[in-house]
Amino acid sequence: QVQLVESGGGSVQAGGSLRLSCAASGRRLSNPIMGWYRQAPGPGKQRELVAGITSDGRTNYLDSVKARFTISRDRGKNVVYLQMNNLKPEDTAVYFCYALTDPNTYWGQGTQVTVSS
Fold this sequence. Notes:
Strand content: over 45%
Order of helices and strands: EEEEEEEEEEE
Distance between the termini: 40 Å
Number of helices: 0
Shape: globular
Structural class: mainly beta
């Protein structure tokens, strides 16, 4: 069994910052790709990839968060972080951590991020 436990969500005003953390526990994963998806409120909103990072540190970002968000990881512990700066109301969503080791994807329970204008 693999568990992903997230922390760090909350409410902040536009322009503020939050840092999300996600730690994998249970059965040890070997070099997983880790990262974050988010799902905004409202009908028709689909889950979108925010940022991902490979075991050797390669990263990718959603265009709308580039230069504002930074993903990093502690490889020795399979912990991933998302530093979110200059937050905007459109960043409001539930953020889900994931860990991918082909062919399995594991998910966290989600953490709410609310940005008020």
